[in-house]
Amino acid sequence: MTLIKTTYNRRSFLKSSALAGGGMMLSFSWLASCKPSPEQIKSLPKEWFDINGFLKIADNGLVTIMSPNPEIGQNIKTAMPMIVAEELDTAWEDVIVEQAPLNTDIFTRQLAGGSQSIRQGWESLRMAGATARHMLIAAAAEAWQVPAEEITTDAGVLSHKASDKSAGYGEMASAAANIPIPEEVALKDINDFKIIGTDRKNVDGPKIVSGKPLFGLDIHEEGMLIAMIVHPPAFGMTYKSMDAETVKSMPGIKDVFPIEVYPEEVEKQWSDGGGIPQLVAIVGETTWQCMQAKKALAVEWEETSKPESSAYHEEALTKLLNTTPQAPAREDGDVKKAFKNAAKVIERTYSAPFLAHNTMEPMNFFANVTSDKAELKGPIQTPEFLEKTLASRLDMPLEKIDIMMTRMGGGFGRRLYGHFGVEAAVISQKMQAPIKLVYTREDDMTQGTYRPAYKVRYKAGLDENGKLIAWHVRGAGANDDLVFENRFPAGAVDNYLAEKHRLDSNVTTGAWRAPRSNFIAGAEQSFLDEVAELAEKDPIEFRLELFERAIANPVGDPEKNDYDPERYAGVLKLVKEKSGWNSGSNDNSMRGVSAYFCHNSYVAQVLDIEMEANTPTVKKVWCAVDCGIVINPLSGRNQIEGGIIDGIGHATYSQMTFKDGKPEQENFDKYQLIRQQQAPKEIETFYVDNGINPTGLGEPSLPPIMGALANALYKATGRRHYSQPYATDKQVVG
Amino acid sequence: MANFTLKVNGKTQQLEVDPTTPVLWVLRDHLKLVGTKYGCGIAQCGACTVHLNDNAVRSCQLPISAVGEQEITTIEGLSENGDHPVQKAWIEEDVYQCGYCQAGQIMNASAFLKKNPNPTDAEIETAMNGNICRCGTYTRIKKAIKKAASTENA
After folding, report:
1. Which residues of B31-133 form beta strands (DSSP E)?
2. Nearest to A209 among B22, B90, B98 (CB)
3. Choosing a second label site near A317 at 20 to 30 A (CA), which of A18, A193, A370, A490?
4. Does B87 touch chain A (CB under 8 A)?
5. Into how many domains does chain B fold?
6. Is the ipTM beyond the 0.85 threshold?
């Protein structure tokens, strides 16, 4: 058992109790819409009692738990409440989950990004559940006049053995709500977990399969108008003028006007990202009417900076790779000398295009801005930052802005950048009406905020025994500098040099699922495969030797290396065992291996290819994961499988190219995403069970798979791939 | 503008709308049936799949004027209590991540299984190839379809 100090702002509890007055209504509507079975609901509760901002308990023992963070498909809406329920020690069947609105008085870091929700929410979620349990015990101790230490809990029932007394949480909820919040609470021993570590189905499942309104795009409010935007057709252009008169008279169209989303005086947040400062807005009664008006509208644009094409990006990134930066990002030993003395040297260059996020639900947001209040609802990964920008843009105090996060039809980093929320607010303010801003697929795909185009060059030197003695990495990216200088193999090679460049581009870029790692992991792991081959060593043994070096005698300050070589080696050994690597019948002729650490989690993968009619098919992927304690193994596996399929898909098929600043892919007819026939036939996941505090799973399985795939493709086809997407890779050697 | 009489999920509805309006937007904007999703508008992603009589169609490319007497079924009308064998299998396999494409996947899968109750893996893959899942739940979708097929035939 661990004792932790509670860190609640006690005033916020009173506030949250006052705010949560409508809880009863909310819960009734949930019960009505979900039609739970009679055994699920026991009976309808008469009263709810606020225990703390995270949860309330009904007189019949039902518990409503708020899920604080935005849900983008990573399933924290199930996992975060599981943590609260665990420490509360209630039965999961008695839990109702609700999405919390943005409320910085109660919750911290209401953000979906960096695979951090579980890692950073771990302690506060446990504390919320444990505090409530403590208060229920204190209430029972008072009612029964017995020592609190003698009271035990299990599945929502309080018991006192000596006096043979017991009561459900519901019976003590009223009294518990009046117990002072304890200064410190005891947390469960992780070996006593009953909910954490068990498979729990997605709490929104029944609503998803029956088409209930869950997403921002599904919002409909009385008097609501539809709004669309027209943005510049190319990067490097801005709004000049338009003739909107004929379009304004089209059926259902209410108004057409230019909007200044970000006037100079607005205090922007990082999350405003590549928001386009000036747009044209079209407002009408229905989506189809707005779409027709959008097609008919003639807007003139003017150039503000030189339009860029893909050929230019390719050339400019190559030029940077051929330039020595002013200072290295990290240098250990004497790389120059080591290469000179090396028995074998190998150098390869890898590249990848810009990528769009392409969430299946295009960008959208609901806004109702009046003179004294702004109400916003929609899909946003960064509600707190959106609120700050809105306060500045609308010149309104934070308290007058309400933001509700809807379930998101995908995030992948795209909805970290909430310019569309600001656009919706500005349009609503101008129209003095509630509006729902809707991006078309084409608006969404051509807006920007892309995964940057990247290029990286690796050079490795081996001694006469095939030992890696020198490593040089130099990377460059559009608006991004790509290289993580303190990641593996830093610390495992005596002579190590990492360098990075950034190419300024007017094509806007942003975080895309596992930023930087989503390219460099595949490049690094493909290169390591080739280096191991040159060293005439098994690719897993070659990597393990490096980890052993980093464990026994790390190069440089071990604190600087931002990975744990033992955990890294651990996942590699696990996947080796589970995949039967090198075990007789399979001679590894068609398999590739890869391992990577990012977002605080470790992943190793083995991928098997079969050639069917000269086409490589991914038959099976084995995936070993070390993310510490796994909250919900079922949804964790789903994330891992999704990351693998996403990684294979983007490495093989997807790209965003430009001609004179104009995106050449505008919809799914030209922008290829992985489909059912191309997906792996089977994925099997294995978790390392080590009891370490949990880290994230939303991103870590994606980056390494690009390397495992490239390495397996080499075994299957004899060709190494240096340029993504692999399906169109014509480059013979890097 | 023109008057239309539509049969949606067993209910007859009258509405006045531009005849070029795709069924997708009639459902979403006019009838407030938002379970059918907009993904691409060009019949490439399958998020807007509904049944026209018993056939899976892309509602984003189907103008209301082309519907005539044919019956439309949306995800909301696939079953009364969300308990169609395909819906049940989806819950059983915990298929979804973000969930946005899944109504289209379920509508396509249920129409497919009606025509081919005992599909092979390859037949499932071909039938489902028009439905994009950006989260990558393809292996689970396939498992759920197989489960639905086996329970329906049990």
Report:
1. 49-52, 55-58, 71-73
2. B90
3. A490
4. yes
5. 2
6. yes
